[in-house]
Amino acid sequence: MVNLALKNISVELGRQQVVKDVSLEVKQGNFVGLIGPNGSGKSTLLRTIYRVIKPGSGAILLDGRSLQSFSLTESAKKLGVVGQFNQVNFDFSVFEMVMMGRTPHKGMLEADRQEDYAIALAAIKTVGMESYAHRSFSTLSGGEKQRIILARALAQQPQVLLLDEPTNHLDIKYQLELLAIVKALGIGVLAALHDLSLAAMYCDQLYVLKGGAVMTSGKPRQILTPGLVREVYEIDCDIKENPATGCLAITYYPVCGQV
Ligand SMILES: Nc1ncnc2c1ncn2[C@@H]1O[C@H](COP(=O)(O)OP(=O)(O)OP(=O)(O)O)[C@@H](O)[C@H]1O
């Protein structure tokens, strides 16, 4: 069953067409990566799906139903988001931040239930931050904040998770861990990623954006070639399978005259 489908989505911002006729699918259990250079429209597309931006044309379907027909609470029960910027204006404890993930599941004025506490604690544990539960969120490092924002999305128990460069700020161990945690959820995931090696390692399917349009899509091994990297990013590289890991290893060549 298709969980999330975009049909011919176009978005205009400040008189510029930033997303052009994008169609894509995130099937249940599939980890789908959005790759492309800076400014290619990845965040705008994600923001359109989580309803911060209205598309100029096209349709977004969740479980076959137009996203527009869901109330914001209804769509928040199904769609979890880990964004790029995690500034909060008020100070909350780590535990309070993660409990916010339970909000869409509660009725108006309904008190927190024991079950909600247990789900939030389990989510904090999953990201390895249990000893931080009572710390103030604003005092955390960038990477620690990112892990708590993931925990909040996990506490939401979404059916589809949207991630905008989720590995920003994380050291390499936590980059690998975060993607492994997300992959193990077995839900549909759509993630904007810059690191092509990580994208190849974790994604079942990649969509390559350039100038707001989908240039190509497919399984990482089928589409990630030196020719594509050259065309999209204007740099040269070698791509080989690492015999020890079975993963693609990408080695970039220095930009001419800059090493
Ligand atoms: N409010 C806005 N008004 C005008 N242009 C905008 C607006 N927001 C974004 N853009 C432009 O839209 C384009 C796509 O931006 P977007 O943030 O979606 O790219 P991205 O692929 O996520 O980039 P990055 O990899 O740098 O995060 C950029 O050229 C950006 O300057």
Automatic annotation (TrEMBL):
Keywords: ATP-binding, Nucleotide-binding, Transport
ABC transporter domain span: 4-236
Listed InterPro entries: AAA+_ATPase, ABC_transporter-like_ATP-bd, ABC_transporter-like_CS, P-loop_NTPase
Protein transport as UniProt keyword: no
Record's keyword annotation contains Transport: yes
Gene Ontology terms, MF aspect: ATP binding; ATP hydrolysis activity
CDD domains: ABC_Iron-Siderophores_B12_Hemin (cd03214)
SUPFAM superfamilies for the chain: P-loop containing nucleoside triphosphate hydrolases
UniProt protein name: Iron complex transport system ATP-binding protein
Organism name: Dendrosporobacter quercicolus
Lineage summary: Bacteria, Bacillati, Bacillota, Negativicutes, Selenomonadales
